[in-house]
Amino acid sequence: xxxxxxxxxxxxxxxxxxxxxxxxxxKELTGVGDKDPFRMITLIDEVMxxxxxxxxxxIEGFGFATQQGIQLGGIGWGMRMSLTRxxxxxxxxxxxxxxxxxxxxGFTGEVGNxxxxxxxxxxxxxxxxxxxxxxxxxxxxxxxxxxxxxxxxRIMYQVNRSDFIGCPVYQAEVVKxxxxxxxxxxxxxxxxxx
Length: 194
Known about the structure:
The chain is α/β, with parallel strands linked by helices. 44% of the residues lie in helices and 16% in strands.
């Protein structure tokens, strides 16, 4: 059983975890060359070459604030079509939910004096949060996002197991938003926190 996180982009983040959360593969996939559509085709083929039967796959949803919307839409839909064509089921995770899973809200500072974080600053905050939560780091923010997605897939799978030990409320909220109304035991609730 593998848990796959995909962050589709011109440099696609790919992470595969095992059931215990150990990284089996973490890399940035780019395709061949710099001329589209050939690069996009080879990128999608490269992603599909990493897939295995039985993988539980999460893929980051489309970001609406990007300047490369058409190109990223083509890559994202191409991956989704290839996964579907080959019989893979995948779960869509909103970009904001990826950040929320590691308790990043997009703001910094105290109540009444909050400042929105964006761009490179936000990527750095997410990378630090992943390091703090899981001890994982990578030079590529795409791979870091894919790692979060793979962890989301792993928690989604564990929710229905009797040995599931729970997770923080913010992670449970993300998983519940993907799975619907399935019961999720929350570590914070067990510890009397909210």
